[in-house]
Amino acid sequence: MSLLSFPATDVAAQIAHARSCSTFLPNWNGPVGKPALILIVGNGVHLRSNGINGTTTRIVTTAQADPSYVFAEGFNPFRDPDWMAARQAAFRDLTGQFYTDILDDVQMLIDRGHETIRLATDGHTIRVFARRAADYLIGGVYDVPSGLGGTFRVILKDASDTQALVQNSGNCEDFDEMLPYRVPLDALIEIDDRRAA
């Protein structure tokens, strides 16, 4: 999993643009009737509004970055010499447009005062990454998706900026005998958090 970081003020401008438009870029399924953010992986990695208002049609191909885009930190081809290696590490050989459904979640973080918006990607999916390792308690008890349709109860052993090392604890059958394993940090579910696994 890789993390993409964007300045929140620039992302807020993209959201405001999308919400000011009445027509939107279509996605793979056809016409779109609501504002959204699109992640573009190609000449750098950047977010943009899906809104169409006729103010710009220029693609980022010149020495000046179009203000209608916000580049991920470290992925700007006009400033970051290693942007291509970073892009390949995050997306392998995938390029193109990722139509996201993250606008409301990102707006919530902006409203809470987050200065940086972080998105997690495994090369195929894009998720809002809201928390940091310091937000979790080492030795704390959490749930994680089991991959079997439910959750495992785990104890957090260690955490990095993207991954958590967990040990099953308090589960039925022999699941607690499993060796510690890594899960994406944002897969940890607070015990009183009722979100779906």
Description:
With 197 residues, the protein is of the alpha+beta class. The chain contains 3 helices and 13 strands; from the N terminus they run E-H-E-E-E-E-E-H-E-H-E-E-E-E-E-E. It has helices at 8-20, 83-91, 103-111, and strands at 2-7, 23-24, 37-42, 44-49, 51-52, 70-71, 96-99, 116-121, 126-128, 141-145, 151-159, 163-168, 181-184. A 4-stranded antiparallel beta sheet has the order 6-4-3-7. Strand 8 and strand 9 (126-128) form a beta hairpin. The chain is elongated and about 60 Å long. The two termini are 18 Å apart.
Which ranges are low-confidence, i.e. pLDDT below 50, for 5 or more consecutive residues? 58-66, 193-197
Tell me the structural class. Answer: alpha+beta
From the structure provided, what is the oligomeric state, counting identical versus distinct chains? single chain
Strand content: 25-35%
Largest sheet: 4 strands, antiparallel
| Number of separate strands | 13
Q: How big is the Rg?
A: 19 Å
Give the strand line-up of the largest sheet.
6-4-3-7
- Estimated helix fraction: 10-25%
What do the pLDDT scores average to? 84
- What overall form do the CA principal axes indicate? elongated
Ends: how far apart? 18 Å
Order of helix and strand elements from N to C terminus:
EHEEEEEHEHEEEEEE
Discrete helix count: 3
